Amino acid sequence: xxxxxxxxxxxxxxxxxxxxxxxxxxxxxxxxxxxxxxxxxxxxxxxxxxxxxxxxxxxxxxxxxxxxxxxxxxxxxxxxxxxxxxxxxxxxxxxxxxxxxxxxxxxxxxxxxxxxxxxxxxxxxxxxxxxxxxxxxxxxxxxxxxxxxxxxxxxxxxxxxxxxxxxxxxxxxxxxxxxxxxxxxxxxxxxxxxxxxxxxxxxxxxxxxxxxxxxxxxxxxxxxxxxxxxxxxxxxxxxxxxxxxxxxxxxxxxxxxxxxxxxxxxxxxxxxxxxxxxxxxxxxxxxxxxxxxxxxxxxxxxxxxxxxxxxxxxxxxxxxxxxxxxxxxxxxxxxxxxxxxxxxxxxxxxxxxxxxxxxxxxxxxxxxxxxxxxxxxxxxxxxxxxxxxxxxxxxxxxxxxxxxxxxxxxxxxxxxxxxxxxxxxxxxxxxxxxxxxxxxxxxxxxxxxxxxxxxxxxxxxxxxxxxxxxxxxxxxxxxxxxxxxxxxxxxxxxxxxxxxxxxxxxxxxxxxxxxxxxxxxxxxxxxxxxxxxxxxxxxxxxxxxxxxxxxxxxxxxxxxxxxxxxxxxxxxxxxxxxxxxxxxxxxxxxxxxxxxx
Length: 597
What we know:
Blueprint: H1 14-22, H2 30-40, E1 45-48, H3 55-65, E2 76-79, H4 83-96, E3 105-108, H5 114-123, E4 127-130, H6 132-141, E5 151-154, H7 157-162, H8 166-174, E6 181-186, H9 191-200, E7 205-208, H10 211-214, E8 219-225, H11 231-241, E9 246-250, H12 254-266, E10 271-274, H13 280-291, E11 297-300, H14 302-305, E12 313-318, H15 325-332, E13 342-348, H16 353-363, E14 368-369, H17 375-396, H18 402-415, H19 419-430, E15 453-454, E16 460-461, E17 484-489, H20 499-510, E18 520-522, E19 527-532, H21 537-543, E20 547-548, E21 551-552, E22 556-557
Parallel strand pairs: 1-6, 1-7, 2-4, 2-5, 3-4, 5-6, 8-13, 8-14, 9-11, 9-12, 10-11, 12-13
Antiparallel strand pairs: 15-16, 17-19, 17-22, 18-19, 20-21
Helix pairs in contact: 2-3, 3-4, 6-8, 15-16
């Protein structure tokens, strides 16, 4: 079946088509062309597509076509994993419904004043977009009525799973009318999400956009091999030379967002932090400043940046490499959206090379190594900016220069100096705080020689004469290959702790994907957990203050199991020995065995 080539072929309502045309949309993206006809026909949808493919329009446009604006009851409910994404989706609905008189959309999420949400719900909104926790709050209060609900959308379902919301999502689904349309969109389809789809979707139409056609093709990706403590200096050089409009810099922790933003501000860049500790009003103001060209750099954590779609974001900088390749895809998806081009830069420490390989394998793309800008390159960039400033001033401020012209002409005659000499002195004064001539010490990048060469089939071999060996590294990294350290938590069975509690707390507070949390062993008074090696000091400091079951975990490196890389036991492990996952039942005590752990 041939796909529609224009939005006019998609049976959308005239008011919606008019808004689409005014927004400059010409041709449906693959996800839109496939999903919209099914949603208009009333079918359930199971969509697998990466971020940035246009999936918001894929469900918003057809559902708006079916909205009854004369009825203020909630007819469509959209669940999103984060506040930012809830706002983004609500704004998209509003843009597409600009010609639908009487239409109202309402985002509801934690961190926003409850009284304001209660008033707006009482007035009525045909579309409600919310995070699972706040939607549950309103359903329990009775302030959100779903008796006239026609459709529910689960947006970025895999992210809701990773954040521990999947049980909440199922609870909400069970409190919706049985006769309703359901659309589930996810970048990946892990078993728990497939289970939800099988249980709650009725004969869904499956729409899948392959990663090759949905991400990365319009994003130039490069990496720099970090050496020692030179990350900040390297970042500064890149910011000096890269021609970027706006940039999002990703770090792993909330503390790092503030520290890095302050350092960038001190170096003359317009930067601000965004993280989960900021109140929602401040977060919204910060994003609005980015949209209005009042801010150039946003320093963010993965969760805080979810849902940000700002057209002028031309670059994404991975200052801290993510532990998970899917997180990387979501990060770089903040640029190059809806067909626009973008650039992504990744800092990789030598001990993090396996994470780089994992990202390349998952995205099916080679990430090219970059060289840091030299002092001469920075000097040239500053001179070009200085010349541009002079040209702009002479062109746009000419009528304001007469006083200064006469002042300097008098100075030239009185002191018998040329105009060039005066201009040189003034230029020197102007650039004292930011010298045009830059002398930078060399930053030697970390070595990645064992990154390997590719043979004729595109496979990697080892360096030198070892290229013929069938080493494991030829086959690409596995998640099990991530180096692990063992940590002790001062909570255990006596406190009613379950493995899922530990996974949820660490995943949410440290920003570590749950799949990168290794074996958890519960004892009576304490527990141990395996986490990726090289955890930043600030992350551990933050985790020490985290509570599980009303008990501080006081995490510390376990002296008995902190030998570095985790080796799988030679014996076949018991079922209870495997790494815990979100939603696991409490692990049983392992059977007694003569084998020693």
